[in-house]
Design brief:
Elements lengths: L2 H23 L13 H34 L1
Helix pairs in contact: 1-2
Length: 73
């Protein structure tokens, strides 16, 4: 796979996976770990964890795609 195509695919996958991870993270209750009224801090944590999870999922998918294309060719 061409590096430009791989980068475009990775970017598209990230923008697909990030909302999914963010929606999944919203079901996790982290309020016991924060002070009362620390809403923006919790939102930042949700965003950062969602970004990290999306990055890890996309990297795993790209590795699998790379392995599959090497096996096929």
């Amino acid at each position: 796979m061409d590096p430009i195509q791989a980068a475009i695919l990775e970017l598209i996958l990230f923008f697909i996976i990030f909302p999914v991870t963010f929606k999944a993270m919203m079901s996790v209750d982290i309020t016991p770990y924060f002070k009362k009224g620390a809403i923006w801090q919790m939102q930042i944590i949700y965003i950062f964890i969602s970004l990290a999870l999306a990055y890890l999922v996309v990297q795993a998918l790209m590795q699998l795609i790379g392995l599959m294309t090497r096996l096929i060719t």
